[in-house]
Design brief:
about 0% strand; single chain
């Protein structure tokens, strides 16, 4: 059920953002990545373990870096970061023991992240002017030969 809810919620948020125009700029998905990349820190605080928070902070810093680079350089880095966070969700419990993480969270967050990454990739491709051009226009006509 967590997988379905994560997928549905990510799709609903993405469609809402597109409908009202929140996703016109890189800041929207950069912020999404920064937030999802930080939530394990919240769970570490809830667990009461400073050591867990310090370990989680390493990964939080990595996702914040990708969020910043995606904002500054390329939205494709945000796609990669969201997808990578989904993979991280799958392996998280094997890497860090964090008793504050709810049992449903890894599946929920994994499906949310991967859905958000897929939607953003689709959005980037849809609005790319390069992909909308006719390839034949790039070739010289025989008279220009």
């Amino acid at each position: 059920m967590a997988l379905l809810i994560g997928f549905s919620l990510a799709l609903a948020v993405a469609l809402y953002a597109s409908f009202i125009g929140l996703d016109r700029e890189r800041a929207f998905y950069s912020t999404v990545l920064a937030v999802v990349g930080s939530l394990y820190g919240l769970f570490a605080v809830m667990s009461g373990s400073t050591q867990t928070l310090l370990l989680e902070s390493i990964f939080i810093a990595a996702f914040l870096l990708v969020s910043a680079l995606g904002f500054k350089l390329s939205e494709w880095l945000l796609v990669a970061g969201l997808f990578a966070h989904g993979v991280f969700d799958f392996f998280h419990s094997h890497v860090i023991s964090n008793s504050g993480v709810p049992a449903y969270w890894p599946n929920f967050c994994m499906s949310y992240d991967i859905t958000a990454a897929a939607y953003l990739a689709w959005l980037i491709r849809r609005r790319s002017p390069w992909l909308k051009t006719d390839a034949n226009k790039c070739l010289p006509s025989p008279s220009q030969g």
